[in-house]
Design a protein that fits this description.
The complex is a heterodimer of chains A (about 475) and B (about 200). Chain A is mainly α and about 475 residues long. Chain A contains 20 helices and no strands. Helices cover about 80% and strands about 0% of the residues of chain A. By secondary structure, chain B is mainly beta. In chain B, a hairpin with a 2-residue loop joins β11 and β12. Chain B is elongated, with a radius of gyration of 22 Å. The chains are: A mainly alpha (about 475), B mainly beta (about 200). The interface between A and B is large, with 62 and 57 residues.
Chain lengths: ~475, ~200
């Protein structure tokens, strides 16, 4: 490890420690811990949404995917941004107005059903455990490439440090830390491009070299049907992503949420273009890396000047930490607030719930370690799988549920369970013959969820009007 | 292409891997001689190698080790009919020498053991060491070295005055950006607190 990297790491983690301790002094209630006292503004909020979105899947997985397959993967971003737009207009304002602490809170209130809340909480924990596997695996790849340390050691350090600042300050500390992380990432990625271009000999030379390696790198490595499937997975999952929605709750008001989403898309565009270019240019400089997931860390460590490289490595680790942190907050809240607080000990005090939340975070952080060490797929592939499941069980109850008042509790439960199982079943059966029919598991999952939601809602008891009022106040 | 988890990514990982390599670049009058030696394991597998010269360069082979395909774009592809285990190439590059093309094997290196040794002998006197790619360290007066995990497709050796130092500019930009962001943040925070 270079001296510059060591100094940047020490300064950065010193800052994180300072923010966490400051936040801990400002965290007294469960609302403070989960929703930062609803005090986050549009710019910090936008950076936070971008930081939560820009995970290991982006800096390690997407960059690696561009390294390996070229330009065509970039079109997947359009699906993702479409999901953000849906969220901005049809999800976020209503959820922020509702002002719950967790997404299962919304499910319970909207459909007037505690079993629906419990199911949502369980599905969140299951699907986000998959997501954590991708984050942990990415941290292992970076640690191996940059520091030469074993993946398990790196993952334990990641769990320890992230759990530390999550436990100390909850959403307040993580929001400010994620703001800092986004700035570092955007700056590091943008500054890296001219350096890489300079090493590679400019655009035309790079394009010529890439074409000679594989002409699909600059064309259609993936076909439109595949890209649409990837785009749907990301778009539908982001429109109903619990960890993003939790961040809406921490913002000042509905207007702030919309502004934050627009700012977040701006950050994501910059990061998306940078990641595409860096992936391609890294392929020019090192055409045969053993693992595409190592492209980002090797580029930062071997190619970039010391300070930019060190910042980018810190930025990548930060991106992983911020996503792990967001997920731990959501899953911890699901266990403590939605399961323990509602079913095990409803009379628990605020202080007791915060303690349970913190204990859950530690336990839930350790479970994915085992799976990450097995390395079932590359980072981006695991992220895609998780997105498919989230879209399959949450898109319909959240997005349709917020905009169609006839949806009932039984409809929501059927939609969540049916969507999840259909996606899982197709993944192990029909997905293998995708080439022939072009039907992806996410499409099967979401379609099943939608059909069940509409059909079951038609034939079951309507939700009481008082539950609907807050979400459909103009109609009520 | 099937999109299942196991087959989602067309992977570069292969059973054949680059065990170690020596890349030597010797500067002479108006040209460089590049000698590369690659050890591929297991040694019963054949390998393919690619070299991409720049438009303002000429490459002359000292010895043609196998079938060399010279494309019109300056791409040289070398294929071997039989597995050798160790593959040696030597070629002379003339023209602009700021970027020296390196023969790249199609197989990845299999470890993080820094087993690829790069040596540059008698580099230009005005070489800007901070901007080389890969990063090189001075071994003695006439020799620079690097130990790498992966084979680069070029070795960049910029000389003073040829262009501005991108590395220094990049590092300076980061410092300026951080300073600017910190000041902006402090001013904004103070205003918010006062309000």
């Amino acid at each position: 490890m270079s001296l510059t990297l060591a100094i940047v790491l020490v300064v950065y983690f010193g800052l994180i420690l300072g923010i966490s301790i400051w936040s801990a002094f400002h965290t007294r209630t469960e609302e403070d811990f989960i929703a930062a006292g609803r005090s986050i503004g549009p710019f910090v909020g936008g950076a936070v949404l971008a930081a939560t979105q820009i995970s290991a899947g982006t800096v390690v997985g997407t960059l690696g995917r561009h390294y390996l397959t070229g330009v065509s993967w970039w079109y997947v971003w359009f699906g993702l941004w479409a999901g953000w737009v849906v969220s901005a207009f049809f999800v976020a304002p209503k959820l922020r107005r509702f002002g719950a602490l967790t997404v299962p809170d919304y499910i319970a209130a909207r459909f007037g059903s505690e079993p629906a809340r419990a199911l949502a909480a369980v599905l969140i924990v299951v699907s986000y455990t998959i997501y954590l596997v991708a984050q942990f695996q990415a941290s292992g790849e970076i640690a191996l490439a940059v520091f030469g340390i074993e993946p398990l050691t790196a993952m334990l350090i990641l769990v320890g440090s992230t759990a530390f600042y999550t436990l100390l300050g909850g959403v307040r500390s993580s929001s400010y830390i994620e703001f800092l992380q986004t700035l570092i990432m955007v700056a590091g990625l943008i500054i890296a491009i001219p350096v890489l271009l300079s090493h590679a000999g400019g655009f035309s030379s790079s394009i010529r070299f890439l074409s000679s390696l594989d002409d699909r790198l600059l064309g259609w490595y993936y076909g439109p049907r595949e890209l649409i499937a990837f785009g749907i997975s990301f778009g539908l999952s982001i429109a109903a992503a619990p960890y993003e929605m939790t961040r809406f709750y921490s913002m000042r008001d509905e207007r702030t949420v919309k502004q934050a989403i627009a700012i977040s898309i701006g950050f994501q565009f910059l990061i998306g273009v940078s990641v595409l270019m860096i992936g391609l240019l890294t392929r020019v400089l090192f055409p045969t890396l053993e693992s595409a997931d190592q492209a980002s860390s090797i580029m930062a460590f071997e190619v970039l000047p010391p300070l930019v490289g060190a910042l980018l490595i810190v930025g990548m680790m930060s991106a992983i930490m911020s996503t792990v942190n967001s997920i731990l907050l959501v899953t911890g809240a699901s266990v403590a607030h939605d399961l323990y607080g509602k079913y095990v000990r409803p009379q628990a005090s605020q202080k007791h719930l915060v303690t349970i939340n913190r204990v859950s975070i530690v336990i839930l952080a350790l479970i994915p370690l085992y799976f990450a060490l097995q390395k079932y797929g590359d980072v981006q592939a695991i992220v895609v799988e998780q997105a498919k499941f989230i879209a399959s069980f949450f898109f319909v109850p959240v997005v349709i549920g917020l905009n169609w008042r006839r949806g009932t509790a039984s409809g929501a439960i059927s939609a969540m369970l049916g969507g999840f199982l259909a996606c899982l079943l197709w993944e192990f059966t029909g997905q293998r013959t995708f080439d022939r029919h072009g039907i992806d598991a996410v499409e099967v999952g979401v379609a099943t969820s939608l059909v069940l939601f509409v059909m079951v809602s038609r034939f079951t008891r309507q939700v009481p009007v008082e539950n609907l009022r807050i979400f459909f106040d103009r109609e009520a | 292409m099937s999109l299942t988890l196991a087959t989602l990514l067309p992977t570069l990982v292969a059973t054949t891997q680059l065990d170690s390599a020596d890349i030597n670049i010797d500067f002479a009058d108006h040209h460089v001689v590049v000698t590369t030696r690659y050890h591929v394991a297991p040694n019963d597998e054949t390998a393919r190698f690619v070299l991409m010269r720049l438009p303002d360069q000429e490459v002359a082979w000292s010895a043609v080790p196998a079938v060399v395909i010279d494309s019109t774009d300056g791409l040289y592809e070398v294929r071997f009919g039989n597995a050798l285990g160790t593959y040696t190439f030597s070629y002379r590059v003339t023209g602009r020498l700021a970027r020296i093309p390196v023969m790249v094997p199609s197989v990845p290196s299999g470890s993080q053991s820094r087993s690829i040794r790069l040596t540059v002998r008698d580099p230009p006197a005005q070489l800007r060491l901070t901007d080389t790619f890969p990063r090189l360290t001075i071994k003695d007066q006439n020799e620079l070295q690097a130990a790498l995990d992966n084979v680069p497709s070029f070795v960049r050796l910029p000389v003073v005055g040829a262009s501005a130092s991108t590395n220094r500019m990049a590092d300076a930009s980061v410092v300026v950006l951080i300073a600017f962001a910190s000041i902006w943040w402090l001013v904004r925070h103070r205003r918010t607190t006062q309000a």
